[in-house]
Amino acid sequence: NQRVAEIEGTFKSFLARSDIGIVLINQFIAEMIRHAIDGHLESIPAVLEIPSKEHPYDASKDSILRRAKGMFCAEDFR
């Protein structure tokens, strides 16, 4: 799909820029390029998935959040 390829290309171009520290992406769009988001393992730029009016945020789909949760255990917060 040409639209998905364009979204993925734009996302990757943002990751490659040294002047970008945070990439905000609508979670609905992020689902279209989930493989590219899952492949981004660097901490900078940070990738944050956000909701839209039409599509509410679903934490279970946020791969970055799942990865962050896996870095901590309940005892870390005591």
TrEMBL record:
PANTHER family: V-TYPE PROTON ATPASE SUBUNIT F (PTHR13861:SF2), VACUOLAR ATP SYNTHASE SUBUNIT F (PTHR13861). It comes from Notothenia coriiceps. InterPro entries: ATPase_V1-cplx_f_g_su, ATPase_V1-cplx_fsu_euk, ATPase_V1_fsu_sf. Coiled coil: none annotated. Keywords: Hydrogen ion transport, Ion transport, Transport. GO terms for cellular component: proton-transporting V-type ATPase, V1 domain. SUPFAM superfamilies: AtpF-like. Belongs to the V-ATPase F subunit family. GO terms for molecular function: proton-transporting ATPase activity, rotational mechanism. This is V-ATPase 14 kDa subunit. It comes from the Eukaryota.
